[in-house]
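Morning run. Coffee first, then this:
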Amino acid sequence: MNKLVTSCGAIAIALLGASLHAQTTPAAPSAPPPAPQSNIFLADLDLAAGTARQVRNITPHAGYNNQPAFHNGTVLFVSDRSGSTDIYRYDVASATTTQVTATEAAEFSPTPLADGSGFTVTRVADPALKGEAYTESQQLWRYTVDGKPAAAVLPTGRVGYHAWLDAGHVALFLVGNDERKQPHTLVLADLAKGSAALLSSAPGRSLGRTPDGQRVSFVDKSDPAHWVIKAMTAGDRLPTVLVATPAAEKEADRSEDYCWLPDGSLMMGKGGVLWRWDGKAGNPMRVFADLGDVGGDIKRLAASADGKRLAFVVQMRSK
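And here it is:
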């Protein structure tokens, strides 16, 4: 990967982050409460036939298993098997799982780097921190392929989620604080310039890169009753509306998790159902497959580079 950030750029990013927080975004709740049981499932996709088959649970482990990402025939994911969240790797061909990180820190959202040098994570150096201290400590870090912490990408804290637009630009979901009525925000950081552009003050947690590679995609939640997937980059006056998310009367039943497929379409989960948008302006999302027998609600999704496999999180329902 290119040099991640210059020293003056780091200062600029830090100052800009502080400014954004003061105006629109500070804080978050305390360290996360115990997460509900969640597992990662893998399915074989046939986009032409419109099917998802051979659906199997690849994390038959009690507790928190989340945030899958495909990387060279494997699925990276987060699990809490050691008392804190670490990164694990599931090899699709051999159906075996190995632990990648084993640190005192907590790692979330493993995201492979395009140059193959490793992956980035949201890292909490001390998971025992509480409240604002925990949130402020959430930084974007680069790790080596074998799971060793390399360096912070940015000095900015409060990073909840991220997505790379290219080697020099990364989209950051910065965590807000409901009690203080300070919203989450989405910014696009330019590492070379040490600057960041505000894209949204009401983003969902799933971030992506549009098929043309030019813009950041996100769920816009500014209308509480009507969530829409939009795309935007630095310099755009307004975001581009892509497609509405599947409708639901209650916010808890709406979806904010999606992934792009290599054919330019988009997959989203709602309840136990997969929905797909064909990528064509004006067309709605349509049901792709009903996977109601997985035993819960489909959340985070990731597609393999060839579009033949889909990994997704299921938040299991209580029996």
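The mean pLDDT is 89. Good start to the day.
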